[in-house]
């Protein structure tokens, strides 16, 4: 998995809700499904079962532009 490779190399900040690797995977998924605009990533993720895709309980809104900064 891409997230695992990235997360092994980038230390997770304790305030982050989502790992950097998961954010990168979400961006890739969004791009591969046709959304090439960052502000629409959350919209494109709503169609997926993110718990199945990421292996943890996540909602599309967790990937908004504020969450990666937490």
| Approximate helicity band | 40-55%
Head-to-tail CA distance between termini: 23 Å
Proportion of strand residues: under 5%
Largest sheet: none
How would you describe the overall organization of this protein?
The protein is an all-alpha fold. The protein is 44% helix and 0% strand. It contains four helices and no strands. The chain has helices at 2-9, 20-32, 41-45, 50-54. Helix 1 packs antiparallel against helix 2 (20-32). The longest helix is centred in the middle third of the chain and has 13 residues, at 20-32.
Pick out its properties:
globular, mainly alpha, 70 residues
Q: What's the short version?
A:
With 70 residues, this protein is mainly alpha-helical. The protein has helices spanning 2-9, 20-32, 41-45, 50-54.
What's the layout of helices and strands?
Layout: H1 2-9, H2 20-32, H3 41-45, H4 50-54
Helix pairs in contact: 1-2
């Amino acid at each position: 998995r891409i997230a695992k490779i990235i997360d092994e190399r980038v230390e997770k900040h304790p305030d982050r809700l989502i790992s950097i690797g998961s954010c990168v995977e979400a961006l890739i998924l969004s791009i591969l499904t046709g959304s090439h605009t960052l502000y629409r990533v959350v919209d494109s993720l709503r169609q997926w079962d993110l718990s199945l895709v990421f292996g943890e309980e996540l909602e599309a809104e967790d990937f908004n532009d504020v969450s990666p900064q937490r």
